[in-house]
């Protein structure tokens, strides 16, 4: 699914390149790119919930889940997000929304069934850290900047090619080299996008480690979060491969990635750091808090 997402983004970049090649107005191109960004920015909460079959639940429908969120909000002095449950056996949780007022924290039925209250509290503290740090906004902007980088590359190339006017001989030379330059433009744009793709995933891995640390310090129980990580990762092996693959496209949102067994581009370009690195950080936090190993 990561490979498909990469190709979709690449197709989008190439599409913008075609628009420039036919001399479509740069202003219109920016409007098109901005439209995609605004759709993602303002609709991410509804899109994620709809795609994961999640629904907002009241305190009467999910008293234990609401109690955990209420306690975390009181401890962190933050507004309470909407609380949702996704009917999925894939053990996971995610947070979405462009602001704390629009935030939604969602847990799957699979993770609620497998974790005890302390472990689930650690997971939800991790997700609420994403909300507090505005990580959804950060990643949305970072993704848009990657696309914008490709646009700027093309603008620079075409400004060099067509900006000078000149005599007939110069115009003929421009025509002769137009095809080659267009190829170079598209290649350069693809390279820019590929680099931004990798950088965005590096940023995502950093944000996950940051959320782990913030969540562990908020609850004061890094060992509970470490236990949740191990349980969830182990439980992934019991989930049918078909279900894991259907959930992989949401890995950027998830507490821990849903990866099917074996090698895949999802593991190569993961949005999350390796389990060992996350557990090592939590062990260091335990020592900092004087809790031993």
If you had to describe this structure to a student in words, what would you say it looks like?
With 293 residues, the protein is mainly alpha-helical. It has one domain. The protein is built from 11 helices and 4 strands, in the order H-H-E-H-E-E-E-H-H-H-H-H-H-H-H. It has a 4-stranded mixed beta sheet, with helices on both faces. A hairpin with a 7-residue loop joins strand 3 and strand 4. It starts with a helix and ends in a 5-residue tail after the last helix. 35% of the residues are buried.
How would you describe this structure in keywords?
mainly alpha; 4-stranded mixed sheet; 4 strands; 6% strand; elongated
**Spatial strand order of the main sheet:** 1-2-4-3
Classify the helix fraction into a percent range.
55-70%
From the N-terminal CA to the C-terminal CA, the straight-line distance is 37 Å
Uncertain segments are none
Oligomer: single chain
What radius of gyration results from the CA coordinates? 23 Å
Strands, total number: 4
What order do the SSEs take from the amino end to the carboxyl end, as H and E? HHEHEEEHHHHHHHH
**Count of separate structural domains:** 1
Strand content: 5-15%
Structural class: mainly alpha
Topology (elements, then pairings):
Elements: H1 2-21, H2 26-51, E1 54-56, H3 63-76, E2 82-86, E3 93-96, E4 104-108, H4 109-114, H5 117-132, H6 135-162, H7 168-219, H8 222-236, H9 241-247, H10 265-268, H11 275-288
Helix pairs in contact: 1-6, 1-7, 2-6, 3-5, 5-7, 5-8, 6-7, 7-8, 7-11, 8-11
């Amino acid at each position: 699914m990561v490979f498909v997402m990469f190709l979709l983004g690449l197709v989008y970049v190439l599409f913008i390149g075609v628009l420039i090649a036919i001399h479509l107005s740069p202003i219109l191109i920016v409007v098109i790119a901005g439209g995609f960004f605004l759709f993602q920015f303002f609709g991410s909460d509804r899109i994620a919930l709809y795609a994961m079959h999640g629904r907002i639940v009241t305190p009467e429908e999910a008293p234990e889940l609401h109690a955990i969120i209420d306690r975390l909000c009181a401890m962190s002095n933050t507004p309470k997000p909407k609380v949702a449950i996704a009917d999925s056996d894939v053990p996971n949780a995610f947070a979405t929304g462009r602001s704390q007022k629009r935030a939604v924290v969602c847990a799957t039925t699979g993770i609620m069934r497998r974790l005890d209250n302390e472990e689930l509290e650690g997971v939800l503290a991790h997700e609420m850290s994403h909300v507090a740090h505005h990580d959804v906004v950060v990643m949305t902007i970072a993704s848009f900047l990657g696309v914008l980088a490709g646009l700027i590359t093309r603008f620079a190339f075409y400004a060099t090619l067509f900006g000078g006017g000149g005599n007939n001989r110069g115009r003929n030379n421009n025509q002769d080299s137009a095809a080659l330059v267009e190829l170079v433009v598209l290649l350069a744009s693809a390279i820019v996008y590929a680099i931004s793709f990798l950088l965005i995933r590096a940023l995502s891995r950093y944000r996950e480690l940051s959320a782990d640390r913030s969540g562990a310090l908020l609850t004061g129980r890094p060992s509970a979060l470490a236990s949740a990580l191990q349980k969830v990762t182990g439980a992934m092996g019991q989930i049918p491969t078909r279900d894991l693959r259907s959930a992989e496209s949401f890995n950027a949102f998830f507490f821990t990635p849903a990866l099917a067994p074996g090698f895949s581009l999802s593991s190569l370009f993961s949005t999350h750091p390796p389990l060992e690195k996350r557990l090592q950080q939590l062990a260091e936090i335990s020592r900092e808090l004087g809790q031993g190993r």
